Amino acid sequence: MAEILVKRASPIQRLSHWIHMVSFIILALTGLGLYARSFFGLTGLFGGVDMSRTIHHYTGIVFFATTFIIFFQWAQAITARGEDSLVDVVRSYLDHDFHAPAGKLNFGQKMFAWFAFFGGLVMGLTGFAMWFPFVLGRGLQQWMYFLHNAFFVGLMLFILVHLYLGTFGNPGSWRIMVSGTVTKAWAKAHHPKWDAEEV
Ligand code: HEM
After folding, report:
1. Which ligand 1 atom is nearest residue 117's CA?
2. Could you tell me where the DSSP H helices lie in the chain?
């Protein structure tokens, strides 16, 4: 019997996420090449140091803009009050027979989305300060470097977990990025409140 499919993300939501994702990868590769001697070889992929820096700056604008676009697209689901708790979410990842009573997003996804928003904001603002280094005083400028590096490490870790959960960790999730749909069985299992109330 054919599987029943339900809509989860619109074409514009998918396009925004793809642009955001690709811009993050370009920023990570160019940023690492410019930052650390051991990754210097990466600058060769982008035509050298100067080109890597230019690409990093302008891709940063795309990433900063899509940070806001994605946040507003998901704002309703991110701010929705649910009964889901972090304990339930962790349990549902460890025990595949248990499902948190999640709405459109579970508690872990909401926390990730807030972090992705604030992380994107901090990366963008500190990045602009580093692009125009003589605007702030020396002391404040050093904080910009520190925050840019610290938030990069934090974002990278969370995004690796997000990447895993959006693909191998949760079979059936990746199709949201491709076709914007999920199976009815996926909706019922992972987001039962959303399935019952909105689908
Ligand atoms: C690197 C590869 C990535 C993959 C495979 C991926 C996959 C996905 C998938 C499948 C969803 C839909 C989740 C659902 O509807 O239940 C999603 C949502 C989302 N993604 Fe990504 N993503 C990636 C990168 C990123 C990056 C770089 C960011 C931001 C810095 C990001 C931020 C978000 C946000 C905010 C959502 C909305 C809801 C949530 O928290 O899950 N993603 N992603």
Report:
1. 35
2. 11-35, 42-45, 49-79, 86-94, 107-131, 138-165, 174-178, 184-190, 192-197
